[in-house]
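Run log, item B.
One chain of 139 residues. Sequence copied directly from the ordering sheet:
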Amino acid sequence: MNKQQGFTLIELMIVVAIIGVLSAFAIPAYQNYVVKSEASTGVATLKAVLTNFDMIQQETGIGPKTLEAIGTTSGAAGSLGSLSLIGATSASGASAVMFTFNTTGVSSQLSGKDTTFTKSTSGWSCSTEIPAEYKPKGC
């Protein structure tokens, strides 16, 4: 009698079924991770310019007039979105920095959403359109 080698068809089908069940749980979890990661990157991009914003305001008495004044450009945010100053054309300069997610190339949950850090006498406050389940802790 010959000794059987390899796997039977039923054994292979069981392995394929197990992989299918595992991937059914893993893919949505991974997609949530990607959205949270993109949201955190947007907030981190904003936080990186806040110190320079404060320095300009302390040295000149007014907020910065351009992104270049705080050491960045609109495109510095990369493929996720863009930075902008709010109120930069006013006599007192900008009062806030905003990150706007692109409408393409990012998760649909973040597409076109804004996150803003606003300067007041008590410090910085964050407001965002990011859904609560993806909102980073720093905002």
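Observations after the first pass:
- The domain at 9-134 is CATH 3.30.700.10 (Glycoprotein, Type 4 Pilin).
- The chain has one helix and four strands.
Flagged for discussion on Thursday.
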